[in-house]
Design a protein that fits this description.
There is one protein chain. The chain is 67% helix and 0% strand. The protein contains 16 helices and no strands. The radius of gyration is 22 Å and the shape is elongated. It starts with a helix and ends with a helix.
Length: 323
């Protein structure tokens, strides 16, 4: 057996394990909103944010690293692209029992005194929040908001902190105060909309997220959140349009297919995966899901054809990488 053949077999095996692991990761229970986790597993950004969006968060999402490696290996830049780290990623570090080390990479929050300004407390609260010290963040942000009730960012970040504590009503109140002060701040509207969505108030969530999307029509996070909320209202075609606006028609079809699968609508999911495959015949995720869904819906011949295609794509990619 030639070296190239062995390499092709090995890569096909790794690809199968990787795709299976990715699908499993989206269904295994973990922290964060389960729907958002599903689309984030493919590199789409969703959820709330602690920053007023300017140039975007430059921190690379840690959970996208395996997909980035697979993307480089097989030359697929769309299926598993690396995106920004989200609030859901940050939460995964909050319950880990480790000693805090204050250094240049993880600085301590600045000390504040009785004469500190609202903005000083705001800066301190933001730093506590980003480092997972939620109780301290709430204390500092509450002080900032009391010193300057019109400081919208303090109310917004206080909403994020309350959300992390599971205090949905307090989070909603804080977000709404922030929106009252800055009614055209897209990120605050996004945080309010996503909080409403997480607590099952889908119609109100769609209303806020649509307003946010009008203010920031190219914001990936807002568009994906709107897509998720629309899915919960059963408006999958509208959801697809927003997913596609966020990251393009390929990911739009993939994310809509994922959500339809979550709701047990396999036949409808197949249509979106087939559309994704027409856009990119080498989309390994689409082919893998089609193989599984064809088998599940009693189409063994189509399932076998999809499985063969998956192997063929792997072999082609392996041959190309060996040149």
């Amino acid at each position: 057996m030639s070296k190239r053949t062995l390499v092709a077999i090995l890569i096909a095996f790794v690809l199968t394990i990787g795709v299976t692991a990715m699908w499993s990761a989206s269904t295994i229970e973990r922290e964060g909103d389960s729907d958002a986790n599903v689309i984030e597993d493919s590199g789409s950004t969703a959820g709330g944010t602690t920053e007023k969006k300017k140039s975007g968060n430059k921190v690379v999402r840690i959970f996208a690293a395996p997909f980035k490696a697979l993307g480089k290996l097989f030359g697929n830049k769309d299926d598993h692209k690396v995106q920004r780290m989200t609030e859901k990623d940050t939460e995964k570090f909050e319950s880990v029992g480790v000693a805090r080390v204050d250094d240049s990479r993880s600085p301590a929050a600045r000390n504040t005194n009785s004469g500190a300004s609202a903005k000083d407390h705001l800066a301190n609260g933001r730093e506590y929040l980003l480092n997972g010290r939620i109780n301290e963040a709430i204390s500092e942000l509450s002080t900032a908001a009391s010193l300057d009730p019109r400081l919208s960012e303090a109310h917004n970040l206080l909403g994020v902190a309350y959300d992390k504590k599971g205090l949905a009503d307090r989070a909603k109140d804080s977000y709404e105060r922030a929106v009252k002060e800055e009614p055209e701040d897209a990120q605050t509207l996004n945080n309010l909309g996503f909080s409403l969505y997480q607590n099952g108030n889908y119609r109100a969530a769609v209303d806020r997220l649509k307003r946010a999307a009008k203010l920031a029509p190219t914001d990936e996070r807002i568009l994906n959140n709107l897509g998720l909320a629309l899915c919960r209202l059963g408006k999958f075609q509208d959801a697809f349009k927003n997913f596609a606006r966020a990251t393009g028609p390929l990911n739009g079809n993939l994310n809509t297919g994922r959500m339809l699968e979550r709701f047990g609508r396999d036949e409808d999911a197949i249509k979106y995966y087939e559309d994704a495959r027409r856009i990119d015949p080498n989309s390994t995720f689409a082919v893998k899901r089609l193989a599984d869904l064809y088998k599940r819906t009693g189409r063994p011949e189509q399932a076998q054809a999809a499985s063969s295609t998956l192997t063929g794509v792997s072999n082609v990619s392996a041959a190309a990488s060996g040149k």
